[in-house]
Specification:
Oligomer: heterodimer
Radius of gyration of chain B: 21 Å
Radius of gyration of chain A: 18 Å
Order of helices and strands of chain A: HHHHHHH
Shape of chain B: globular
Order of helices and strands of chain B: HHHHHHHHHHHHHHHHHHHH
Distance between the termini of chain A: 55 Å
Number of strands of chain A: 0
Helix content of chain B: over 70%
Strand content of chain A: under 5%
Largest interface: A-B, 43 and 48 residues
Strand content of chain B: under 5%
Number of helices of chain A: 7
């Protein structure tokens, strides 16, 4: 079980780097969606005694992150008629290197952290922190509104991985609330990106610069 | 008692989505607000109703926030009805539903004693307020909404990570993780210190983004500047108070675990930094609604500073939550009225507001005097109390800087406000006479009356509530 879990987490880390290095937005949506679904499977592997609420929460996460959100985003992408992220603030190769450095940093750091409880896998904390950092990199270096949302989703995936350590602390209501919030966030954001596209004839967030001092 | 306060507004919000009449729909808000206020007062008078379950408890600090937001919302609801009557050309379906949903969610914030639940509710308030900012559907309001959502969502995501770190810090020696406030303060000394510190920083950054502390305040001038005045009042007085409540939770856990000095240093620094940044950006500010946003940054800084000083400043800090909200109500609503009377919010085009809109203009001026801490208004008492607390806690440097920055703010804000209210009305605007409507002025007068009342005489029941909350923040209850 632990081997399988470690393998999944390594795949998640690799997907982070793919998301950083791909310019086709459609591919990034698919990668991030698959990543979300994979992370949704993890709780089913981690616990020997599965309860119905935990299975439900996992299923909801898989359906939402693997199917619903990618579809909303693909629709927004079609409406906007764009295909690629061009001229990000940092090129694709340098951003992969930066992401690799972030991953290495979080792997090294987790060796020094005071780990308070025996986790199912020591990789969980470092994968989580690496995904949060990479989400941040995507969010800050991409200029298309949809790419920034994808960065937010990677960041959210990273946070979700951390929550796997804390199943007892998070009741089903709260977990569902978090998923609902994520869904509404993406839903509202994709409406807004659509309006940005109509009003500014572009999804380039650099055009959103009228409001400043 | 928690369920009616939370669910009633949410249910009526759902109802608002199906009510077909654009004229009747805004009138759903005031009755709900009145009922909400009545129920709130009833709960405060009967403390036995304040515990529903382990996750839903209205503790003394939650009471202050719930009461403040309920009063704020009650007065704003009439203004909203008046405002939507003027803007009847636009569908208000989403606007009304989101307003009501906001009331339900912020009540949940005040009640929640489970930090995960609290996070869900705060994130919810971000989401339902986004369409409110977007009401005018201009290019600028799209830009403001986008920044609000993206910066807000990322900030709140960091707060979630901080919440998880906090739960993880409680997994010591085979104990199970917990996010219940009672559990966490109860076994605070057992928490893992490195994780607790990391969690505090993330929560300060996360909820600080929501409050608008510098340097995470960048979304604030845009959102407050482009949103209708009534939404600005609700954001500056309501959402920020909810986020501040979240900050007090982690502060309590830190002090209980013996990490109080660490938390206090960071809070004091962030507080002073926010006041300074707000002061600098207010100087030469030409847009009076953006100026109000910076004033909100300043007052969130004052609250954070008060929390950082702790002990002797806590009573005044809790009082400042109330006085700040009421004064922000006055300022944002009157600014909205002035904005409409001139169709502009730039000082180049707006002058002589006291003559063109005598009531709103004078209230705006009085609100400015109040918010900058002039006697005899409420914020004077609370700001002076925080300053006093800083001196008696021996924080002379913080107190000195606080005074200096307040002066800076007074000068910066004063210039803009005087330009707006004094002087001649521009001739092209003077040609079209303007009449103030009852519904958009009466709530502002009510807010101002409350601000004045709080400065002259704090009613004993309120004084008791604030005293309880201050004691609660020190973990003395």
């Amino acid at each position: 079980m632990i081997n399988l879990l470690d393998a999944l987490l390594v795949i998640v880390l690799a997907m982070n780097l793919f998301a950083l290095g791909t310019s086709r937005i459609l591919s990034v949506i698919r990668i991030v969606g698959t990543q979300g679904a994979l992370i949704g499977i993890i709780p089913l592997l981690m616990h020997e005694h599965l309860t119905i609420p935990s299975i439900l929460a996992s299923l909801a996460a898989i359906v939402l992150k693997g199917i619903v959100i990618p579809n909303i985003m693909i629709k927004a992408l079609r409406d906007a008629q764009i295909k690629r992220e061009i001229e990000p603030l940092i090129g694709f190769l340098p951003s992969i290197l930066l992401g690799a450095a972030a991953t290495a940093f979080s792997l090294l750091m987790s060796n020094h952290l005071a780990v308070t409880a025996q986790a199912a896998s020591s990789l969980i904390i470092s994968t989580s922190i690496a995904s949060v950092l990479i989400g941040f990199i995507i969010l800050t270096t991409r200029v298309k509104a949809l790419s920034q949302v994808l960065g937010y989703l990677v960041l959210e995936n990273g946070i979700y991985i951390f929550s796997l350590l804390l199943v007892e602390a998070i009741p089903l209501v709260v977990e569902m609330g978090m998923l609902l919030d994520l869904f509404v966030t993406v839903f509202v954001i994709s409406i807004i990106t659509n309006h940005i596209n109509q009003a500014f004839s572009s999804m380039d967030t650099r055009r959103l610069s009228s409001l400043k001092e | 008692m928690a369920y009616p306060l939370i669910l009633l507004p949410l249910l009526v919000a759902a109802l608002a989505l199906v009510v077909p009449s654009n004229r009747f729909r805004p009138w759903l808000v005031p009755p709900v607000a009145a009922l909400h206020l009545a129920l709130t007062v009833y709960v405060l008078a009967n403390p036995s109703l304040a515990t529903v379950s382990e996750s839903l408890i209205l503790d003394p600090m939650g009471r202050i926030v719930l009461l403040t937001v309920s009063v704020l919302f009650f007065l704003c609801s009439f203004y909203a009805a008046g405002y939507l009557k003027i803007r009847s050309e636009r569908s208000n379906r989403i606007f009304v539903a989101c307003l009501l949903a906001f009331l339900g969610l912020i009540s949940l914030v005040a009640w929640s004693h489970h930090l995960g639940l609290m996070w869900v509710a705060i994130e919810g308030t971000t989401l339902v307020t986004a369409p409110l900012i977007y009401f005018n559907r201009t290019k600028l309001s799209i830009e403001a909404t986008w920044k609000y959502l993206l910066v807000g969502s990322v900030g709140i995501a960091l707060a979630l990570l901080g919440t998880f770190f906090l739960a993880y810090s409680s997994m010591q020696d085979g104990m199970t993780a917990s996010l219940s406030l009672i559990d966490l303060t109860g076994r605070a000394t057992l928490l893992s210190k490195p994780w607790l510190r990391a969690s505090f920083i993330l929560l300060l950054v996360g909820y600080g983004t929501k409050m608008g502390l510098a340097p995470m305040h960048t979304w604030k001038p845009d959102a407050y500047g482009e949103a209708p005045g009534v939404v600005g009042a609700m954001l500056a007085g309501g959402v920020t108070s909810g986020a501040f409540l979240a900050l007090t939770r982690i502060y309590q856990i830190c002090t209980a675990s013996g990490e109080g000095a660490f938390a206090s240093r960071l809070l004091t620094f962030m507080g002073l930094f926010s006041i300074a940044v707000a002061g600098l950006f207010m100087i030469g500010q030409r847009d009076f609604k953006r100026m109000l946003a910076y004033s909100s940054v300043e007052h969130m800084g004052i609250l954070t500073l008060g929390l950082g000083i702790g002990g002797p400043a806590l009573f005044a800090t809790v009082l400042h939550v109330v006085t700040n909200s009421m004064t922000k109500g006055t300022l944002f609503l009157s600014a909205g009225n002035i904005h409409r009377a001139y169709s502009s919010k730039l000082t180049d085009q707006v002058s002589g507001a006291i003559r063109r809109v005598p009531l709103s203009g004078s209230l705006f001026l009085a609100g400015f005097l109040a918010i900058t801490g002039s006697p005899p208004f409420g914020p004077f008492i609370s700001e002076f109390g925080i300053l006093n607390g800083a001196f008696s806690a021996g924080r002379y440097l913080s107190a000195g800087l606080f005074l200096l920055f307040l002066l800076l703010v007074f000068i910066g804000m004063g210039r803009t406000v005087l330009k707006v209210t004094q002087g001649e009305i521009p001739p092209d605007i003077a040609a079209q006479p303007w009449k103030e409507s009852f519904l958009t002025v009466a709530p502002v007068i009510a807010f101002m009356a409350l601000v004045l009342l709080l400065g002259l005489y704090i009613p004993p029941p309120l004084r008791e509530l604030i005293g309880d909350a201050a004691a609660w923040l020190e973990n003395r209850v």
